[in-house]
Amino acid sequence: MKILELIKHLKTFDKAEQLKNKQLPNVEFDLAELYMENSLSLDSNIRFFDSEKISNDLEMEVEGIKYVNLFPLYLAQEMIEEFTKSTEKKYSDLEIANRLLEYRINDA
User: Fold this and answer.
1) For residues 64, 60, 80 and 10, what is the CA-based torsion angle, rounded to 10 degrees?
2) By three-state DSSP, how is residue 90 classified?
3) Which of 49, 71, 69 is nearest to 59 (CA)?
4) How many beta carbons lie within 10 A of that of residue 16, not counting itself?
5) End-to-end distance of the chain based on CA atoms, in angstroms?
6) Considering only CA atoms, which of 15, 40, 42 is closest in space to residue 29?
7) Mind listing the pLDDT tens digit for each residue in 27-76?
8) Which of 28, 37, 86, 87 is most buried by its number of CB atoms within 10 A?
C-alpha cells in the first residue's frame, strides 16, 4: 500500500482501526508504527509494525529491506483527520500525502 491509498483509510478513527486490524491483528492501535520502504516518498510501500517488536529507530532493516519511519499510526490518523475536517481549505488526498511527507522530512 502506498501513502495515497493509506490516506483514505485514516480519515476517521474507525476506518483506521479496521485497517490496523487487517494489518496487525492482536496489536493495540497505539502500538502500530508506519514505516515506508526504502525512502519517504509517494511511491514507497508502507508497512505496519508492532512497536514492541522493533527497534523503533528512524531507519531499520528487516529481511534485507530498508524501512524509514513515517509516524506512529495514531499520529498519522490524527493529522489526516484534521486535514479532512479543515474548514479553511478542502485538501485532496495527494495534498494531504505531500503535507504529511513534508512535515515528517522537515519538522518531525
Assistant:
1) 50
2) coil
3) 69
4) 22
5) 22
6) 15
7) 999 999 999 999 999 999 999 999 999 988 999 999 999 999 999 999 99
8) 37
For 19, the grid coordinates are: 485497517
Would the pLDDT of 108 be above 60? no
Question: What is the distance between the alpha carbons of residues 5 and 43, in angstroms, rounded to a whole number?
Answer: 11
Return left, alpha or beta for 97; rule: phi > 0 is left, psi -120 to 50 is alpha, else beta. alpha
One-letter-per-residue 3-state SS of 14-81: HHHHHHHHHHCCCCCHHHEEEEEECCCCCCCEEEEEEHHHCCCCCEEEECCEEEEEEEEHHHHHHHHH
Neighbours of 98 (CB within 10 A): 15
pTM of the predicted protein model: 0.91
Bridge partners, 69 (sequence order): 35
* CB atoms inside a 10 Å sphere around CB 6: 24
